[in-house]
Write a structure and sequence with these properties.
The protein has 86 residues and is an alpha+beta fold. The protein has one domain: SH3 type barrels. Helices cover 29% and strands 37% of the residues. It has a 5-stranded antiparallel β-sheet with strand order 3-2-1-4-5, covered by helices on one side. The chain is elongated and about 45 Å long.
């Protein structure tokens, strides 16, 4: 399964940018989104920004990821995913 994650661009240098994922910053390619500007949210897959997002769409996607992570942790803070497979 492939997953693309929203991130906010905090810096752009030619064909690369610095994207922030919940406080963690990573270098990403911005070659596929030439319209992206510092402060924009982009969808990042395999180190490449593949699409720009508006702030509301990015916030909703991040909220859903957080909800999924909480559900996978289970009610006792353990890994619900491991328990579901047992």
């Amino acid at each position: 399964m492939c997953l693309a994650v929203p991130a906010r661009l905090v810096e752009i240098r030619e064909s690369t940018g610095l994207a922030e994922f919940g406080g963690v910053r990573r270098e990403v390619s911005v070659m596929l989104v030439p319209e992206a500007k510092v402060g924009d949210y982009v969808l990042v897959h395999a180190g490449c920004a593949i699409e720009t997002l508006d702030a509301a769409e990015a916030a909703e996607t991040l909220r859903l990821f957080a909800e999924l992570a909480a559900a996978l942790e289970g009610p006792d803070g353990g890994s619900g995913a491991a328990e579901a497979q047992a």
